[in-house]
Design brief:
Chain lengths: ~350, ~350, ~350
């Protein structure tokens, strides 16, 4: 694609940029600074790779506005290089269009409503009462159970399952192998026997949400499990019944949420973090990896450890733990000194 | 459904209750105390929600026997409100009956034996030598591999896989995406190369067992992996080869068991707990979230931490860890005082 | 199978052994020392089971060369009993041969290239441009997306998904439910909105690699995610985009790797370990369970804890943590003694 077309696309998308170089060259793919060829675009956000700017063979580099004269190759100066890189990468790698197609091996119930330009792949199952809006793409082997609704431009990965009576907004991505709307872990114990609590709630997912491979999101026990707009969820995350994820939040791989916990807006959760049930986290809270969150959090900021505390406190104590053997020896020595003084 | 029918059902199930109110009303669904309408039933087990009893619009509330005169609406006084709620919720939300049906897209081997009233959904695969007893329900895309047997009233979720030669009892639920009977992690290393140990054991699951979405339970290496009756297992749990789970135990999300570990009867395991291999846990042991269990446990009770110790001890130390920075400063101050005293 | 045939097979495979006993007996299956019958072979690697050698009913036992005269039954003395057991177990339990077969329910694109003796099971999907070499086995319901290539003798489990444009070497096992080549967690945030970074890299898997049930391995963002030869990966492991796993490494269940992290050769990773992104681990590093690895590791050895430190140091501090309540009380007592001395 000619670079001037890319620049026009950025302008259309409201990107404020300064361009330095020749906009008649071809840019056809993205690449890392170190491996890029002349028809490829790269970016720099981490100063660790600053040296590569001198040696890169990239045709175009996207840089922060402050980095004037930082490289010999054509470059774009912008406020948010990673975002602009995302836009360019999307332009160069358009999604496979969801043309109007139903593979003969797919099983689509006669009472399902399928919009325009919906792609339904091999061995897909679309059950009774399902409604799929225009532009959605269902990859091979996925199952959409009864009365579930998908908005526009959704993309469901291979072998994913969306259980019955769930609701997905527009532009929702469910990656391969994920299970949305399975029964939650609701059981009553009577004299040592477990009795299943029917899970009558649903999963309600907003717009522009992405859910990773082999994730599980349980349907609500009574009310619904809710994922608000603009959330991103990585692989193998588990959300139990009646969890609510506030808009804009990002959850990394293998994190887990017990039932009825509420995460605020614009939170970030690192890998393998665990949340107890029935707790509430305010907006703009950030959890470091492996944290175990056991109580409500009412103040924004970074948290870590188990039970999770402010990250700065955890950091201090964490250093101390690593010095604990030394500290114990110090205490022993103090005792000796005192014993001498006392005698 | 008319309330007196619900009461009759409870009596049939041996529930001892006192009912206060008018039993001619209609109750059609469950709900939370705060959102319930006049034709809905709710319950109270957590005192946190006591105030709702004054304002609830529910038609019926299920309460503990001690809560006489606690609400203005019709109510049931029982010993175990959550259990009675489960019974009523099951009555109001009957499972989809597994009528005698095989979807034309399903692939059922001619040598498979399928009982009465078995439902086999879209794109299900039932291989050679499989035996499925009456009343079982196989959701879309699930695979039952060779020579596996399912008891009565089993329910297999969409895209779940039950590998070859496994055995499920009656009333077993396997949720969507779970893999039962995959090969365990058995490898011998010779001069840096890994050689696969054939996994010749099976997975044997008792009656009334439930296994969550995207769980993995590996088949035994030589002997079998065993899940006894009346166990419940949440999403994304991993049981390695030759694990044995004692009857009545409950395992929460993302917990993991290494090979050959034995969990006793009526244990509970919270989320993200990990068990080392080849250890044995006695009956009635309860593990707090994220515990790392590295040794045999021979005494019932609650355990926490890594390595897991008695929860009460862990609690004390856990508080101390959070004060560790302070403690270290105290020790430093003591040293100064002693230095002054010594000079 | 007659024992002398087994011995001949071992000799062909270069195993140096001493055999004591009668090689005309039949050995038909493997078993544990305690349960073995006369036509079964067992082995001993753990001294815990030494007593069983006196009582075992096994027809053959595989022992370490040093264990001369340790048992009354026929035995093989070898350098690496577990490896020799693996060889014998493989001989007695040959894999189902991947004969030339495509089940009529499978969907194989006309432009896919399928080699000799490839078995394609029920409801398998093989998309456009896929190339599968001879002897590979595709179990029911698995999906091989566009332009992915499989080497010789690969085995893909039921309902597994290999996404587009990935490359698997020879003798690669992908267990049921695994997702190889899903999109990584690449997102740019602009003014609170998440923008997807197209993931244009692939997953490249070497020869003799095994990947467990419900594992997720994300495709690279720009460059590829790489798993070198001879790696073994247990269930529910997550490898993010651009991770590189060095040859010969073994990763246990529920471990997780954030993006771009490099694990060296011949490393072992225990269960539930987590790795931060963009770090590099040298060769021959061993991580204990639940470790959280946050920094580069440049020295071989065993590591544990979070943040991970040398296992020996972690062990010491870990003991101290469990004595922390006692230590804090000691410090308090010291303070009192000093106060007395000072006055």
């Amino acid at each position: 694609m000619q670079l001037h077309k890319i620049l026009a696309f950025l302008a259309e998308n409201g990107v404020d940029y300064d361009f330095v170089g020749d906009d008649s060259i071809e840019i056809n793919q993205v690449s890392g600074l170190d491996n890029a060829r002349a028809d490829q675009v790269s970016f720099l956000t981490d100063k660790k790779y600053l040296d590569y700017l001198q040696t890169t063979q990239a045709g175009l580099v996207i840089l922060n506005k402050k980095m004037v004269d930082a490289t010999h190759v054509a470059h774009l100066l912008v406020d948010n290089p990673y975002y602009v890189y995302a836009l360019v990468a999307q332009l160069l790698n358009p999604l496979k269009p969801a043309s109007n197609f139903i593979h003969p091996s797919a099983v689509v119930h006669q009472d399902a409503i399928v919009g325009d330009d919906v792609y339904i792949g091999e061995n897909v199952v679309v059950q009774q009462g399902v409604k799929i809006e225009s532009g959605s793409y269902l990859a091979a082997g996925c199952v959409i159970e009864e009365f579930t609704t998908l908005g526009k431009q959704c993309r469901i990965g291979s072998n994913a399952t969306i259980c019955h009576h769930c609701s997905l907004g527009d532009n929702v991505i469910i990656e391969a192998g994920a299970v949305i709307g399975g029964d939650g872990f609701g059981w009553a114990n009577n004299q040592g026997q477990w009795f299943k609590i029917p899970q009558v709630g649903r999963v309600i997912i907003g717009n522009n949400v992405s859910i990773g491979n082999n994730v599980t999101v349980d349907r609500g026990a009574i009310e619904d499990t809710i994922i608000e707009d603009n959330c991103i969820i990585d692989n193998q995350v588990h959300l139990a019944h009646n969890v609510k994820i506030g808009s804009g939040s990002a959850i990394a791989g293998q994190a887990g949420f017990a039932g009825s916990t509420v995460l605020g807006k614009n939170c970030t959760v690192a890998g393998q973090v665990g949340f107890a049930g029935h707790i509430e986290i305010t907006d703009n809270v950030h959890f470091l990896a492996k944290a175990g969150v056991t109580h409500d959090i009412t103040e924004s900021g970074a948290y870590a450890g188990f039970p999770a505390i402010k990250a700065s406190d955890w950091q201090k104590n964490s250093v101390r733990v690593r010095q604990l053997d030394k500290l114990a020896k110090q205490v022993k020595a103090l005792q000796k000194q005192i014993d001498i003084l006392s005698n």
